[in-house]
Design a protein that fits this description.
Layout lengths: L11 H10 L12 E2 L2 H11 L6 E5 L5 H9 L2 E5 L6 H7 L6 E4 L8 H9 L4 E6 L5 H10 L4 E9 H8 L9 H9 E9 L4 E2 L6 E8 L10 H13 L5 H7 L7 H10 L13 H13 L3
Parallel strand pairs: 2-3, 2-5, 3-4, 5-6
Antiparallel strand pairs: 1-8, 6-9, 7-9
Helix pairs in contact: 6-8, 9-10, 9-12, 10-11
Length: 294
Amino acid sequence: MEQTRQSQLDNPQKTIEMIKKYQFAFQKKLGQNFLIDPHVLDKIINAAQITKEDCVLEIGPGIGVMTQRLAELARHVVTVEIDKNLIPILEETLQGYDNITLINQDIIKVDINELVDAYNGGTAIKVVANLPYYITTPIIMGLFESHVPVDNITVMVQKEVADRMQVGPGSKDYGALSLAVQYYAEPYIVANVPPNCFIPRPNVGSAVIRLTRHRNPAVETKNPELMFRIIRASFNQRRKTLQNGLNNSPELSYSKEMIAQAIDSLGVPPLVRGESLTLKQFAQLADWFADHPV
């Protein structure tokens, strides 16, 4: 890897020069905003805790600013980029490295378990990404729900999404995403990132969040799929009580009487709202229904 610090891209001017050289046009539909602040880059790299033993999956490398840094620290980097117009740029910016695999595909369509088998022998990888904000949740939940072996996920996301991932009961930001993320991982907001750290500047604030995968899910439940159906029903109509939310859900077929009994079993008021319940209480609710099949 004969690459010197002087030839790297973590300098905004070099990034701009590379974009001009290839006459690259940003595509709004792909949510392309390239990070140009080296201090934020350092925070992401440090939070991901990359070692020489690690295989890293990078989603959305842009022109390779982060990829170069990852390749210096990791044993291998697999980077997945959807935009074919970025591939010639990446082939130039990454040519000095022999431990990078560049894949031109849509990450949503990639079998990540296959990648982990091929490049890391099926053992846990680390994921680093500057995600297009419109597909943040499907990608993160896809990694968890597909049981991809992951040590941690360090991602740049919209600030309000980062807030939703890490809050607890009673907050206006608390909801199905909070519970789903916290079931699988420990969320930690590493840094808030203002719009001027990107080109082009996004219209919203961003945040770097690290999700450290639990060895085992945060709570035990007899039927996780049922628990998440109950969680979705509880937040589909936030202003309604938990009882009404469960009763109105097309995903559930319990009678009003059963729902009232289940809520009573938690020792909470009958008019409680879903946003007041902890993950553990949702697990208890799901277990009650599992023990009282329709």
